[in-house]
Amino acid sequence: MASKQDSSKPTADPTRRFTPKSFRSPLKRRKAEKVIARTKMPNSFRILGRGLMMLRNHWEVFGGLFLIYALLNSMLALTSLLNINLAQTKADLEFTNQGQGSQIGTGIVLAESLLSGGVGVAGGIAGAYQTALFIIMSLAIVWALRQLAAGSKIRVRDALYNSSYPLVQVLLIMVVLSIQILPAAIGASLITSLLIGGVVVVAWQQYVVGFVVFLLMAWSVYLLISSVIALYIATLPGMTPLKALRSAKDIVRYRRAEVLRKLLFLPFILMVVGSFILVPLSLLLPFAATLVFFIMGMVILPIAHAYLYTLYRELIK
Description:
Blueprint: H1 2-7, H2 9-12, H3 26-37, H4 44-57, H5 59-76, H6 78-83, H7 86-97, H8 103-116, H9 124-149, H10 156-162, H11 167-196, H12 203-233, H13 241-251, H14 256-284, H15 286-315
Helix pairs in contact: 4-5, 4-15, 5-9, 5-15, 7-8, 8-14, 9-10, 9-15, 11-12, 12-13, 12-14, 14-15
């Protein structure tokens, strides 16, 4: 089993293949990299379709992982689920509007209350266990995606037992991600304290503050584009966090804008699909809407990893 996996490593996950080492001139090397970067990638819908196809073709593996994740996560988030009373929120809205508000508007407000109400998010010690469970199941799903893409036959227990080796590397890259978010957090704090707080009232001062905040947020986004890909590179055997970050930087070079569009596509399409499901369900069956929202939050995990891993594989082609 081990020899079969080892023999598939070079073809399954090359990370720096696109850099032409034959060019000793930096100028020629950059030109060659730009030519490869212009290679047309599949659109976001096709990438999502390939990821979903991978999940469907190996439903027994990913279904088993999902059932384990759903069972453990439900035990940890049971208190959070019981504290959400969407039916009471709906009754309060109808009483406040006195029948004058539209049904669609009420459904949107109820769906927003689910998003902001922390449904399925445990607190305290249970929240720490829930975060650990999220990371462990993410590693198991990515390991399964990698092995199945390489043609290996695996079982659910293989994914659970063999996927934890890059835990330290992934955690270190997550620390880097949290540091890279700091400029955006500083920008949000700046705009809150100066503009909304009424400290800056003159128009040109507001423009300057807004421009500075935009630069800080753009800086964070620029850094995060490659670091998100580095999370998947870090799961390769023998990979170090620094090497993963450098490889991810090389992979997205000259096409950060395209990668950013594809990264933003996933939350956009999930939000659209979720709205079509949750808005009418919140009006008709409020209790069922809470349960469906919780289940959707868990289903998103394998879908997101399948999409992002497929995107990563398209980038290294």
